[in-house]
Amino acid sequence: MNWCRSVQSLVKSAFSGKIRQESSNYAQLRYMSRVKSRHTAPRHFWMKKERARYPEELSSENEAFLREVVSDRYESPLRHHPPAAPLAYTPGVRRCGLVARKIAVQPMWLSNGKYVNTTLLHVADNHVVGYVPPEMLNQNEVVRRRWKEQYRPLAGLVVGADQEDPTKFTKEYANMFLEAGIMPTKKLTRFTISPEAALAPGTRLRATHFQVGDYVDVYAKTRERGFQGVMKRWGFAGQPATHGATKTHRRPGGIGSGAQKSRVWPGQKMPGHMGGQYRNLRGLKILRINTKHDIIYVLGHAVPGDHNDYVLIHDTVLPLRRRKEPGTVITDEEAAQLPEDIFHPDVHQMAAPSIVF
């Protein structure tokens, strides 16, 4: 009976993720890391996006006729029914985000003379494609596990970026955009929002979705580094370079866990594939917005991803950096009246004089 009780207590401690030390046994329990977190192929339940290209041998008149048919078929419903006015802002509301491209890193100077680096994020022709109600979104196992419905119901808003010719995509993928009245897009993503922050399909999202001074979180995939050793991947110091070291300079060394454990624990830092992981960079301050080209300048140069890669921008989740004012969707007429560049008060504008006598 005593032996059974000790086994049961060990199993309970294993599921709780704790470390338990006894007089003769030392059980080290870590979170299992055997689940594959990096996927290099689309999910099996996703519909096929691109189709095979072959010469269709169309004349110029036929191509012009097809372009007219496409323009008539993908007509935005907002042309006949303008979007409804946004609801009143309440604290804790979760807004939609933007899909952007990381295009460059540019230096800036603040009013006090401090030099800072900023990352340029180009909002790539964002449009709302569809709305997913909370009862349908709750059927997703991942969403149901992370966001419990009894805590606060959440909905989904599908946003597309970079419209392309419908003939480049399959029929199933192109039909997803008929309700929104836009061309099929290269990038399609879903943001988790509050039901009161829903937007009509076909609504265009611009860089002015955020304001100068807001703090945002950027979600993107890190650069691919390929297969790397422990010194490059985990920052190991390596072994001695001289005095008898033979072919062990960059090796990890012993990975045994002792005589009693007698195995390699899951989660051991070893050589392997580096990069290609989705990461969140939180609390980036917006210093400048270019309304003409829809470019957002965020503070810092550590945004994940390579140049021209897609990134997702949304309001920060940091409690002391959340926005206090409501955000509205700006129409084309309102966007034409805005200045081309909107600067933060702490940023020194290069057109302004730096020394005043």
TrEMBL record:
Gene3D superfamilies: Translation factors
GO molecular function annotation: structural constituent of ribosome
Single GO BP term: translation
Region annotation Disordered: where it falls in the sequence: 238-272
Swiss-Prot/TrEMBL keywords: Ribonucleoprotein, Ribosomal protein
GO CC aspect terms: mitochondrial large ribosomal subunit
Keyword Ribosomal protein set for record: yes
UniProt similarity note: Belongs to the universal ribosomal protein uL3 family.
Protein name: Large ribosomal subunit protein uL3m
